[in-house]
Amino acid sequence: MTTPESKPQRQPSSSQNPPQLHESNFWTTGKGVLTIIGIAVAATAVVITFIFSTLSNDNEFGQPATYSDVPTDSVCGLGGVALEGSIADTPDAQWVEYRGVWLPTSQEYGPGDDGSEGEFSCFEHSPRGMLFAASAYTGQLTNPASWEGDLQLFAGEHAEAHRAEAQELFTTVFSEADTALGGFRLVNYDGQTAQIDMAVTSFDGSETSRTSVLLNMVWAQGDWKIDATDTELGITLSPLPDLIGYQHWSA
Fold it and tell me: Residue spans with biased composition (Low complexity) (predicted)?
């Protein structure tokens, strides 16, 4: 005899025991997906706002120069004094032919003295003044046929030795070609020293080549010169495949 406790138990039917309802995940519902999209759009808007706020004070080529209130210390009283910042956008220039070489000039940035003694001199104490000085020096150095006498482009205790070394180097590399400025790239600037990479294009018959002319510049005695305070020449020449990364700078 079976008792109620010993009766075999039967599995209840589905009608007696309906399936359990699983709690849904909010993020997989329509409202959840819309919420995710809203968060993404808001985050994108924040990023775009930050980028535009940054660009308003800066541009692709760095922050414009900041001028101080001190009087100009240029040897010919040209322009102002900017110890911070960069060249920023490519400045306007009047390109002039000087002994067969096209060089940039500016009434604002220099040269204040354009060749009465054989070289351009007197540039503004600023990143752009330094650019115009480096351009004049590079244009003259890379066209040895235009030289008359010694180029007084260096400042420092090794100036004479560097001048002789540079003239020998540039004569060897560029004597057989016509060369023109093509671009520039500011490496650094601190108000007293700077480094700038000048791109030049050489034309030798049917062949065209490019060279990077990396210059160490120094503000000395009221003007920008090529730095000759170190024993090593403050100029480095390197082959250049193209002008990518350089600001366009040519006549």
Answer: 9-20
212, exposed or middle or buried, with CB in 10 Å at 0-12, 13-18, 19+? middle
Can you tell me the distance from the alpha carbon of 1 to that of 52, in angstroms, rounded to the nearest whole number? 89
Fold adopted by 66-248: Nuclear Transport Factor 2; Chain: A, (3.10.450)
- Name the H helices within the chain: 30-57, 127-141, 159-174
- Contact yes or no for 94/104 (Cβ under 8 A): yes
Residue type, 149: G
User: Residue 58 — very low, low, confident or very high, per pLDDT cuts 50/70/90?
Assistant: very low
Could you tell me the pTM of the whole model?
A: 0.76
- Candidates 126, 26, 9; CA nearest to 73 is 126
